[in-house]
Amino acid sequence: MKTRFILINTSHAGNVGATARAMKTMGFDDLVLVAPRWANVLRREETIQRASGALDVLNNARIVETLDEALDGMVHLCATAMTPRDFGPPTLAPRPHFAELLARPEALSEQELLAPVQQALKPDSVAFLFGSERFGMQNDDVYRCHAALSIPTDPKFGSLNLGAAVQLIAYDWREALGGFGVQAATTEPRLADAAAVAGMLGHWEQALADIGFLDPASPKKLMPRLNQLFNRAQLSPEEIHILRGVAKAMMRHAPDKTLPAADKASATASTPLTP
Fold it and tell me: What's the mean pLDDT in 142-161?
């Protein structure tokens, strides 16, 4: 669906850059400024810095003198007005409104399908209007809209920066349109095969016996329990190597069973352990 973000009488150049960045992260690029404070706001240093690489959005942005020009070709208009008004469009939370806006005809009930045609028709374009940082949106501009979106915030402090408000609306709208898939930050882990796990367990069985933790004559269920533990851990080949290294270190520092008991204690006390 065609989507446009409109900033009206924006007074801070940085917010224009932040808006461009917010839009680009959500895959939108149609930005229109209505009578901003600075005629060259799209080229100001603060704007470019806050855009953080979203220069294509700034390059495509348009500056117009009137809201009528900004709304050209747009069908469904959403104001973002936090101030309560006695008259005007309904105040709605973004997500429920977006879900209703995008409801497919096949998802409607029979009663809804038999309703007047206007109810079943869905707009092919939507514009989100944001007012001045200092004064918000003028009443006359809000009255032109089909909905006044209100971002749910703490009732004790509902002040949102313009760039933050754009980001929240852009995110909710993108999610309503289907969203973007999550890109994995790491590669999918590769699991060690059963033979590698069995070999590591054999190594550990020998090491545990060497340090006296496992009695080979009466092993009970120690090794099967360790087998289950490592299965739950879903070890990777690299982790198998680490555990084999631990077993090797235990065997290297285990008491020599060929020495008498007194000599074992002496050898253990006199042999420093290496990390």
Answer: 89
Q: Residue 63: in which H helix or E strand, if any?
A: strand 62-64
Task: Look at residues 119, 137, 123, 6 and name the one whose alpha carbon lies nearest to residue 61.
Answer: 6
Dihedral of CA 146/147/148/151: which sign?
A: negative
| Contact residues for 172 (Cβ-Cβ < 8 A; gap 6+) | 94, 95, 98
CA 72 – CA 30 distance, rounded (Å):
12
Backbone angles phi, psi at 181, to 5 degrees: -70, 150
Please name the residue that has the structure tokens 């999610």: 175
Domain harbouring 260, CATH code: 1.10.8
In a shared domain, residues 242 and 135? no
Contact 51, 21 (CB under 8 A): yes
- Residue 182: inside a domain: no
Q: Using one digit for the tens of pLDDT, what is the confidence trace for 194-214?
A: 999 999 999 999 999 999 999
pLDDT per position as a tens digit, 96-115: 999 999 885 544 455 544 55
Q: Please, what is the Cα angle at 232 between 226 and 237, to 5 degrees?
A: 85
